[in-house]
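Sample intake sheet
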Amino acid sequence: MHRLFPWQRASHADRRALRTDYAGAVYGSLLAASVIAAASSVGEFPRLETVVLLLVTGLVFWAVHVYARLTGERTVGRSITWSETWRIGRSEWSMVEAAVLPSAVVALSPVLGLSLTATGWTALLVAVAQQVTWSYFGALHASGSRRRGATEAAVNLVFGLIIVAAKSLLGH
């Protein structure tokens, strides 16, 4: 449990030295919510293709983020090393992981007896819920303040609800 919440044993001063980046998980969750909203708003949508689309989109956005950080953070005249690429790739991996739970909901929905409409809404709500949760933990890790965590969770809930509203307006 201390790997997920590495600040639990650290003093406030030591927290700054710990670097756990929740941005990828928050961004990946919003990305997954957007993919689900778009895919499930077109009427009949194939579940397997939606799962593949979620995972491939997460992988592509992860690769783009790794590339952008590598090229944006490099020092002039210095080559990019494999260890640096590996380090940045690992730090951004949560973006891909954020697609896993919504994908599992879509994949397991026939077993759960969910209709396509219920599948779309359930997967969307799962993506938004994890986005809000990761933003809360990220803020808690950064500041140690539950108030700050609640504020950031509320902001991310608004972002998620914008996606929910867009899906609702599209009629599904």
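Comment: The chain has a mean pLDDT of 85. The helical segments are 12-15, 23-40, 47-73, 82-92, 94-97, 100-108, 116-143, 146-169.
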